[in-house]
Every structure is written in structure tokens, then in C-alpha cells.
Amino acid sequence: MEEGLLPVLVKGEGVWLYDSEGKRYLDASGSWWVNLHGHGHPYINQKIKEQLDQLEHAIFSGFTHPQAVRLAGRLLNLTGVPKGKVFFSDNGSTAIEIALKLAWQYFVNQGISKKGFVALRGAYHGDTLGALAAGERDVFVRPFESLLAPVDYIEPPGPQTDWESLKSFLEEKKPAAFIYEPLVQGAAGMRMYEAQPLHRLLGLCRELNILCIADEVLTGFGRTGTLLASEQCGTPDVMALSKGLTGGYLPMGATLISEKIASEFYTENTQKMFYHGHSYTANPLACAAANASLDVLEQPEIQAHMQWLYASLASKAAEWNASDRLPKVRVKGNIFAFDLASNYKGYFYNNPARKKIYAWCIAHELLMRPLGSVVYIIPPYGIQPDELDFLLDRLKLLAQTWPLKAST
């Protein structure tokens, strides 16, 4: 391949991707966190083909279809709010936009004055304007800051949290909602924090009439060791899902809301209705893929394999953390991350270590996009023991050959 040209991917099978020159790459990050089971899964393929022969797409305004009805019910049951509602959209950013708009209008409809939102430092919630506003004000965001909604930031809750000061801060700010990535802040460098303090913070928000929005775009569908990270830290008022929703096959987002919030929008008063739409809302092919992916997740043998994967990564993390010659690893479910030495102190995307690590991985048959000098993997659940050994051995080699003292 000529220098500077990108590899052309032509085939995917299991955890492997193949380019036009026959080279293979283990998809170590699930194609940007979307692929749950592996590429070309025969059951999901078949269910999409069956749906294609029935209905490819139709307007979802004033109509519905069986795949959407089934999927909405399953998603609501997963979150423990079976009487709630689902708003389908196209991706994670749009699921977040809808969540923020619903939370804001919920109070507007009641005539309650709110002043913006609260989010976690280091957050990332997407690239549309509302989602950008809720994220860290970094290099991605700065050109658009004058367009963004007001958001205040707090540190992820933990042992050092001053709860009285935090309560006073929230009382002063009067936000409509607190938006958070539960347990793992992905784009912040796979930053992990504990469930119990988050659970306490959600309780505080409810005490102060602040809605809680869980961004489970990354953490949903088993990534943190439970089907939803919220199972470990408390049920939110609003939840955004995407990425793994269709098993990595088709773009789709879903915003789930409680019955309490939904009730504010079922009214004859047209000024209080929620006006938001997407042309491909509840696309039948995407819904079919999502239902098929959930079918696979529910299989006992898949559940057992996922538990093996979680345990294997936790064991490897403990082994690395016991060594003086390897980086310290943080692990949650099938998210495994560590930091390599780097002198760069700015935003991770500008860190020159990123390109060096990426090139090393490509040369060693791994597709993995580092977050600056943060190396992480989120492998598909279908990964087999020999493939996991291959992946972890490559990561160990990377860690052992990277300079202990930063040169970049």
C-alpha cells in the first residue's frame, strides 16, 4: 500500500477485520465501542435479512411497526421503568439532545425556572450542540462555545466529595438536570469511578428536584459488567442508549424516560408538546438488528462467555498491577485501560503519543484508537480465548517496549 493511504476494509468476521491487501486486524475497541458480538454474526445477519423482505423503512409519525414495539418494551424492562416511554433517534448525540431537551421542557411545562445543566468534568456526550455543551470545553468545543447552553461542572463523586458544599452548589445553580456517564467516562481516558458515591449523588439530585440523565451510550449492554451500568448505581429519570444498541450493525439511538416525565407531554395543549423528529426514527432494519442483538445477549451460553471475559480481564489486570515493570491497569467489565508515559499535558487528541501508539498497533494486527497516551480495549463479547491471549500479549509487548520515561 502506498504511504499515506488508508487501509480499505473489505470483510469482517468475528473479532477480525480484513483489508483489500489481505491484512487482518483484531477489532480491539469494537469499532469505536459499537460492536458487541463480533462482525458478521449469523443470527443478526439473518434477522436483518428477514426484516428486509418485510419492510425496510416507513414514516414513524402516526404509524408504528412490530420491531419497534418489541424493542421499546424490552428496553423499558431493562431499565426497570416498564411504564415509561422510548424516543428513537439516529445515534448517541441525538439521543443526548433529546434527553436534554426533554429535561428542560419538563420544567418549562410546569412553569418552574431552571438555569441550565450540571455535568462531570472530563465528560463527553457527543458532537451536536446540546451534547457539546454538556461535555468538557476542550479543543473540540472551543469554536462553538458562544452557541452553547449554560453548563456547570463537578468532579465525579468519590471519597473526597464534600457533600454539604456540593448540595449548596446545586441549590445555588438550580440545574434542570445532572447528566453523567455512569462508572466510566470514556473519552476522558476511560476514567473510572465508584457506584456508591454516584448513587448518593443521584439521591441528592432527586431531593433538589434535579432530573438525572444517564448517558449509557458507551456503558450500556454489558460494558461495565452488568447489562446497564445503572444497575450498579441507581435508576435515572432519563437514559440515552446507542452504540451497542444494534450490536454494531446500524445507526440508532434511544432516549428512555420515566412515566413521571412522559406525563408532562401528553396534553391537548399544543404549546406543551415535545417537538422533535428524525426521518429514520425507529428504522425497521435497525430495530431488527437491535432485537436480534438482545436475543443473543440473553442466551445463557453468551452470558457465561461474557462472565469469562470479565474475569479474564480482571485477572490480567491484577497480574499487571502486581508487576513493577508494567503500567497499572484499570478495568471495569470488558473495559481494560492503562496509561503509557507521556510528557504531553494537554487534551488527549493533540498528544503526539496517539499516532505512535496507533501505528504500532496497526503494525501488530490490532485496530485500537488510543486516547492520547491512554491505551484501552473493549473487545467484542465473541472473542475466543486464543484471540484474547493474542490481544493481551500484544498489549504487554507494547507496554514493555514503550519508554518508561516519556519522550513524547
Q: What descriptive keywords fit this protein?
A:
408 residues; alpha/beta; Aspartate Aminotransferase, domain 1; Aspartate Aminotransferase, domain 2; 2 domains; four-stranded mixed sheet; 16 strands; 37% helix; globular
Proportion of residues in helical segments = 25-40%
- The number of helices is 13
CATH topology of the largest domain: Aspartate Aminotransferase, domain 2
**Which segments are poorly predicted (pLDDT under 50) over 5 or more consecutive residues?**
none
Please state the average pLDDT score.
95
Order of helices and strands: EEEHHHEHEHEHEEEHEHEEHHHEEHEEH
CATH architecture verdict of the largest domain? 3-Layer(aba) Sandwich
Biggest β-sheet: count, sense, barrel?
Answer: 7 strands, mixed
Structural class: alpha/beta
In whole angstroms, the N-to-C terminal distance is 27 Å
Can you describe what's shown?
The chain is of the alpha/beta class and 408 residues long. The protein folds into two domains: 9-33 and 300-401, Aspartate Aminotransferase, domain 1, CATH 3.90.1150.10; 45-297, Type I PLP-dependent aspartate aminotransferase-like (Major domain) (Aspartate Aminotransferase, domain 2, 3-Layer(aba) Sandwich). Helix content is 37%, strand content 15%. It contains 13 helices and 16 strands. It has helices at 30-33, 42-52, 66-79, 92-110, 129-134, 163-173, 195-207, 230-233, 259-262, 284-298, 300-321, 353-363, 385-401; strands at residues 9-13, 16-19, 24-27, 85-89, 117-120, 151-154, 177-180, 184-185, 191-192, 211-215, 238-241, 253-257, 329-332, 335-339, 366-367, 374-377. It has a seven-stranded mixed sheet with strand order 4-12-11-10-7-5-6, with helices on both faces. A hairpin with a 2-residue loop joins strand 13 and strand 14 (335-339). The protein is globular, with a radius of gyration of 22 Å. The chain starts with 8 loop residues before the first strand and ends in a 7-residue tail after the last helix. The model has no long low-confidence stretch (mean pLDDT 95).
